[in-house]
Amino acid sequence: MAALLLIGLPAMAGLGNKLGESLRTVSKEAQAQAAHATDVAEEALSNVRTVRGFAAEDTEIHLYNDEVQKFVRLNSNLGIGIGIFQALSNLAVNGAVIGVIYVGGSFLAEGKLLPGDLMSFMVTSQAIQRSIANLSMLYGQVVNGMSSGARVFEFIKLKPTVSLIGGLKIPYHSLKGSIELQHVGFSYPTRKDTTILNDLNLQIPDGHVVALCGPSGSGKSTIAALLERFYDPIQGRITLDGVDIRQLDPSWLRGRVIGYISQEPTLFATSIIENIRYGRPDATDAEVHEAAKAANAHDFITEFPKGYQTVLGERGVTVSGGQKQRIAIARALLKNPSILILDEATSALDSESEKFVQDALDLAAKGRTVLVIAHRLSTIQNATAIALIVNGKIHEYGSHQKLMEKRGLYWQFVQHQSVNR
Question: Where is the protein situated, by its record's location annotation (predicted)?
């Protein structure tokens, strides 16, 4: 009888482990599907104006419902698997108890076993039965917990390719802001087979304004992302005042050296003064006001009933595009950066708002190294130099006048925009 328990229970444990592996796989798929369904719902809600604008409510509902149904099917399969495991566990344990009774009864009838010994085996087998029954009931929770925990620990153990802190800091009094890209090659981690930048060389002298232009997908915004060290180049290097930026402290580089202004700046659902102060949390109210004046934002801010204490809606929906952009410029100027990156900063604005923002940008650019990324070629004609990027390489480089005299691809772009204006 002891052999029955010693052989049967390990065999049952081995079978349960095999079944458990498949259950863990199904549970992981169910967790991933739940996350995907949540992403679909979140995307629809965050873009509710676009959804309403295209009367796509039913489409989004059906899409979300399909993802939820996939999750339901996976969870149903998981529940069936756990049920089968529990049924097999109970069947095996009860079978062991019946086996003990049957074999023990035979031995008792033959006089090979005393009644007390049979009772001991019965009590032992029933104790084992209750323990395994409880374990099988908890096993479903264990499977779900292990799958959820695996996803959590996967992110906990994830190490960024670019560290957040640590590295050199160039003394502020000696920082010039000269940038150079030397034989830079880059592909995004999610698209390693697609080359974005290919042996690109570019020099941006300190205090100069260099503009990047070219067709969409040519790599202009990628250069800005590399300068801020959101990524590191796969080949070549980028230097700041002759120092490889991979040796510099990323937090210092982004927080003190570079001011980044994008096409669609993000504002937070808090007051205007706190949105501007986000650029430098220790700034005084007077410094915030000076930054707003430099960004041509002070006048319209003071016209609000609560002035700088006016609370903006989510993502700044309560202010116009031009006002939002000028608040973002003030936020960037507050930290007094040596380098300004303007990524399509005026392309989403109407002509009146563009003039206010462009005046603010012209004022902000004085005395700084500026990298301008633009589709509207009319906004970059006064740049010190213009680099036309095509397929990840600089196709033409020079001032607006020299590029126009060459009558090359840049000249064609200017002519095309003039015709379509």
Answer: Mitochondrion inner membrane
Residue 312: which pLDDT band, with cuts at 50, 70 and 90?
confident
Pairing, β 179-186 against β 235-240: antiparallel
The 3-state DSSP class for residue 181 equals strand
**Structure tokens given for 287:** 């410094």
Tens of pLDDT along 204-227?
999 898 999 888 888 888 999 999
CATH at residue 193: 3.40.50.300
Distance CA 328, CA 259 (A): 10
Residues listed for the chain: 421
What is the spatial distance between Cα 200 and Cα 390, in angstroms, rounded to a whole number? 11
Q: How far is CA 244 from the centre of its chain?
A: 25
User: Across the chain, what does the average pLDDT equal?
Assistant: 80
d(CA 324, CA 312): 10
Task: Identify whether the C-beta of residue 37 lies closer than 8 Å to the C-beta of residue 71.
Answer: yes
Q: Which of 355, 337, 338, 336 is nearest to 346 (CA)?
A: 355
195 and 148 in one domain?
no
Q: pTM (2 decimals)?
A: 0.69
* Helix, strand or coil, per DSSP, at residue 109: helix
User: Distances from the Cα of 54 to the Cαs of 38, 49, 50, in angstroms?
Assistant: 22, 9, 6
Radius of gyration in angstroms for the set of CA atoms belonging to the chain, rounded to a whole number: 33
Final residue belonging to a domain, choices 156, 190, 211: 156
Look at strands 385-390 and 209-213 and give their pairing: parallel
Q: Is 379 exposed, middle or buried (0-12, 13-18, 19+ CB in 10 A)?
A: buried
**Amino acid, single-letter form, for residue 33:** Q
The residue among 122, 156, 190 that closes a domain is: 156
Pair of tokens at residue 254: 């982004």
Write phi, then psi, for 235 (nearest 5 degrees): -130, 155
361-392 pLDDT tens trace? 777 777 889 898 887 777 788 888 999 998 88
